[in-house]
Structure formats: structure tokens, C-alpha cells
Amino acid sequence: MNLDRAALAFAGLMILVSLTLTHFVSPWFWLFTAFIGLNLLQAAFTGFCPAALVFKRFGVASGCVFK
């Protein structure tokens, strides 16, 4: 798994977690879902993703987008 796929998989997992928290805990967790979506949008335009930096430190191989 390369860095791009790891970052996308992590974002997808966080969206599912936030939707579960919204359903079972509090509707205010939709803000967490919105934050993840905004982070994905800015990463598409800037190429900067904080999760990619963390995965890179763990030694995940670089991909095409996040290097």
C-alpha cells in the first residue's frame, strides 16, 4: 500500500467513524465529517495532507500525489 491509498483509506475510515458517532452519540459529530471533507478538498488542490505526513513517518512508501 502506498501513501496515497493509505491516506484515502484513513479518510474513508474516519468518515465512517464520524457517521457512526453522529448516529449513536450526538448529531454534532457531523462537524467532524465536514472537517474531513474540507481536508480532502484542500488536499486535492494543495497536495498537502497531514495524515500523509504521519504515514510517511511510519515508513509507508510514497505514491504519485503525496511524496
Query: Can you tell me the number of structural domains?
Result: 1
Give the SSE order as H and E letters. Answer: HHH
Separate helix tally: 3
Arithmetic mean of pLDDT:
93
**Low-confidence parts:** none
Number of DSSP strands?
A: 0
User: Which word captures the global form?
Assistant: elongated
Using only C-alpha atoms, the radius of gyration works out to: 13 Å
In short, what is this structure?
The chain is mostly helical and 67 residues long.
Written description of the protein model:
With 67 residues, the chain is mainly alpha-helical. The protein has one domain (3-57). Helix content is 70%, strand content 0%. It has helices spanning 3-24, 30-46, 50-57. The chain is elongated and about 35 Å long. One of its GO terms (molecular function) is transferase activity. Residues 2-56 form the Inner membrane protein YgaP-like transmembrane domain. It comes from Rhodoblastus sphagnicola.
Tags for this entry?
67 residues, 70% helix, 0% strand, 3 helices, mainly alpha, single chain
Chart the SSEs and their pairings.
Blueprint: H1 3-24, H2 30-46, H3 50-57
Helix pairs in contact: 1-2, 1-3
Keywords: Transferase
Domain Inner membrane protein YgaP-like transmembrane: 2-56
Protein name: Sulfurtransferase
